[in-house]
Amino acid sequence: MALWPRDWRMLPSGETLGDVAPQFLGHSANVLVRVESVRTMSHTANTFGGYAGRIFLQMRKEIRRRRLEVGEAGWGIPQPQPARLRGISATKHYRVAVIGAGSQGMSQCQGLLAVKGIQVVGLSDINVERLNQVGDSMNLASNTRFSDANEMLRKAAPLDMVSIATTAPHHVALGRLALTSGVKRILLEKPIDVSLREARAFREECIRANTLLAVNYSRRWTLDYRAINRCISRGFIGEPRSIFVTVGKGELGMHASHYFDLCHYLFNSNPAWVVSNLEPVRERNPRGATFEDPSGFCLFTFENGARAYIDFSSDLGPKDPFVAIKGTHGRITVDEQRMFWTLQSRSQRLWSIPFAEPLKSSTLFSRVAADLLSRPPVTATEESGLVALEMVIGSHLAQRRSGHQVTFPITNEDSEIGVTFP
Amino acid sequence: MARFHLQTLNAMLGLRLVGICSPTSEKRNDLRDEFGIENAFGNAAEMFQETNPDAVFIAVSHAVTFQVSSLVLELGLPCLIEKPAAYSSGQIAELVKLANKSGCLNMVGLNRRFYSTVNQALLAVMQQGPIRGILVEAHEAILEYRSRRQFDESLYGNWMIANSVHAIDLLRMIGGEVVNIQTSKREINESRGDHFTGAIEFADGALGTFVAHWNAGSGHGMKIYGEGIVAELYPLEEGFLRYASGRVIKLHPDWTDRKFKAGLYAQDTAFLQSVCDGTRSPFPASDLKDNFKTMCLIEQIQGRN
């Protein structure tokens, strides 16, 4: 029986199968384990024999669910409120357009449509086939689909927000189109662009136009990372001094930059310098042959003296992100794959806390969009997006300088090193 | 309280109970025999000189807590002082000065801060979003307590400091730093008041409410309001989480709170670990410097400053 399958998914009903694995693998019964239900349950049901087996499984599931209710976390399965528009915005309707119908664009459309009061009035992509596939799956009317972003910005106006979900080299160029068309909220996928000079210039243009610019480093919006930030602010673990992240096999711009921004958020301090070891790119990038986004590892220090080590090397196996935050008086660990985090102050109880919600792109995007449309964002501003881009560029520079450290901030001249990440 | 502390200390490994001091020989000898304490003394100074302890637990009567604490802090001995550490913020300030001068670690014994249910509630609410509000009720059956004639007037007259300190301190533990407070009180039977309300603003934006009606019975309780969640703890040792979706989850005390006096094992462990580490214990511990702020809050509620 496959108790520890490769893929971790919530049960279709939203419940979890509880602590199936811990009995057999010796884990604490208080660790929330999400197991792919269908394969396991059907296999077990067949093994136990039909109807009786199914009754047994239901009873076991209910017993384990109740045990979880009184587990060490004490509060069982959290019940987060769905993302929603707030205040006066809750009674309004917002018109939002998305540029880019790739996987991220589709997640964004799903996330936007899940928020009451948000209408997706435009989706554009130069690839018409992809555009129609996403449009059909999202039930978007044909008059909301455009193969040209400019045309969409004109015909779908007035727009309350534009989200740009293309690959990074086009972010600022498309952002400028949105800015010129008069949109007052622009959300860029991460990283902000491939050019630090262009990113900085665009930030200034947005400020002059009194336009809100945000970057989708969505971990800042997750309920659990925000709760972790609150725990750190309260002093549960003292002052955070070191963060250690293992991502699994990943890419610098696509995956590691999320954790660069996360470290910036949790330390609440700007990076001071970086050393990195990036592997030569040997495989074609899945997003296009023109892109080069290496694996490797980076070590940052921050202005407050804290350190962060992010490892996304190719020999780490499949992505299984694990974050360890060490403070002067305790530590917090985050297992993103298994969706729980632990909090332990020195000598105190070990709290094992199941995630309030999964780290699903569309779910997180709902929160980002609802936040941006309700009020100015309190977390990811354009400044934090720029810092994360600087950290990516700095990592490339450090590699090119044979592992010598690169100090921040990076000058515009240094930033023009011709990297092409997606 | 001494007995409760000894029960938890006795359950810890790597610890030697080297001395107990009490003016009553029968009491100190009974405790020495019951808990296997190495020595019993009638004089604190003598005990410290003879045993040279690494840490001291001060669980004496309220009337002499300040004097004994002063002695221990002057000697530079890390100490856990059972609440109330003193009867006024001025006295607490003096203790803080002594602690700073000798550089010794200290903690105030506010064990509600270490209740597993209180910490569960706090974490569960924080997981959903920022803390938006706190309601603390601290009703005291003062007429009943007075009728028992167990203590002297200095204690009854300072009952809010002696007992309600737990509830008021929880306001600060959950809400954070107080930036503004508006209070009202009525003096029906007690000269310092026996009906109180307070509206509090915290630095992080949360709003707090304190309510105490001393002639309505007794009992402390708390509600913590968050985003789509309310934690209700009535009494503080047990409670519920109520989600906006309608779901209700019972909070359960963990094994340390069931086996020993609630909060005490976690508190004493935190204090002793801080002694071993040589650093101040992290949240939710409260030292004298932090307790000074709680005392100021109490005095504001009572209208004493």
Features:
heterodimer; A: 422 residues; alpha/beta; Rossmann fold; disordered N terminus; B: 305 residues; Dihydrodipicolinate Reductase, domain 2; 2 domains; three-stranded parallel β-sheet; 12 helices; globular
Describe the structure.
The complex is a heterodimer of chains A (422) and B (305). The two termini of chain A are 40 Å apart. In chain A, a hairpin with a 4-residue loop joins strand 9 and strand 10 (307-311). Helices cover 36% and strands 19% of the residues of chain A. Chain A contains 13 helices and 15 strands. In chain A, helix 2 (37-48) crosses helix 3 (50-69) and helix 7 (171-180) runs parallel beside helix 8. By secondary structure, chain B is α/β, with parallel strands linked by helices. Helix content of chain B is 43%, strand content 22%. Chain B has helices at 2-10, 25-35, 44-51, 62-74, 89-102, 116-128, 142-148, 153-156, 159-175, 255-259, 264-277, 288-302; strands at residues 20-21, 40-41, 56-58, 79-82, 106-109, 133-139, 178-186, 195-202, 207-213, 219-225, 229-233, 239-243, 248-251. The longest helix of chain B has 17 residues, at 159-175. The model of chain B has no long low-confidence stretch (mean pLDDT 90). Chains A and B meet through helix 9 of A and helix 6, strand 13 and helix 11 of B.
